[in-house]
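Supplementary Text 2. Reproducibility record for the structural model of the 370-residue chain.

All settings were left at their defaults, and a single model was retained for analysis rather than an ensemble. We include the record here because the model underlies the residue-level annotations in Supplementary Table 4.
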Amino acid sequence: MSSRYCEIYTGCFVAWIYLQALWAILANVFCEFSIPWAVWGALIFIIGLQAARVPPPNAEIVQEVLGVNPLMIGKDREQAGDNNQDLYCMKVVGHRGAAYDYPENSLTAIRNCQSRGCNAVEFDLALTKDGVPIIFHDTTVERLTGEPGTVREMTWSQLQELDISRNHPLREKFVGGEKIALFEDVLSECIRNDQRMFIDIKDKSMEIVEVILDAYKKHPSLSKRAIVTSFNPVVIYLIRRQNPEIVCSISFRPKIFSRTCYQGLEGPGPARYSNPLKHILAMVLDCLHSWALPRFTYHVLGLSAMLLHKDIITPEVVRKWNERGVRVIAWSVNLPSEKLHYSRLLRVTYLTDTLTGEKSAESNLPFTAN
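Retained model, structure tokens:
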């Protein structure tokens, strides 16, 4: 039996112990049901877990999207022999199109990645008030444009007038400004340039599921060029349940539900909710999510990768996820010393906000990456 399934069954056993204990307490306090019902509950839970599972995409499709696993480069070289140059290995992904170099999530940023030899980009998908899919990260427009407004409360006609280069450190470089990009335009640009895509879902409504499914129907090549990711496992599950061929990942950092940000040395940022009850519930959800993700969630969702905050990645973390058949991808890695650490020591793909210092046209070539 593989270590992956041993871990899943061990998690189920632990869950069974908790259920048994909880049922014993409830039975003694409130009623006279017999304790063995907890055993039936645990069995139903395990069977339901397997029934609900969406198998991961075919390994060949995953490799077509993500390339050769950097951890397996040595083995793949031996197996490939003289043909190893045909194997693609993704080293660098332009986070929001490498947002330090060009306005984030813009078509110009994505084109810059392509011209610099970085043929993998990550961008954020959101919806406007009138349901238009756009590429935008924040819930409000103020940080990028200097103007007030919430994306979900603004129409596309309002948003397309804004200049997202207004507060960029290199704004003098962008004569005429830069506009918010449409999802369809970005897809067409990436497909035309044969760029891999990380589609990061930011919208919290279930409408976004249909947007993704419609995009894959309209552009069949996305199945071999794109990976869909989100912090929300429910969204990923609904997408993969309807189209199991879509390669997906979960983005994760500690305290995602209860805190607004996280940095390794500084720890969690400010509380997301001022209401004490909401904050407590969010902390409970954080604990459950962190516990279930490496035990059940990834298995049920059929994940192909984990996008992890760089400060929680260790060799042990990479090894364990690799044993589960899941790639680890780090975000966001910007310092030259960090890039060497993650690419050479940990041997993982990383998202970066700047391509400065990256070897032109070598960021994602096979075997030369590390």
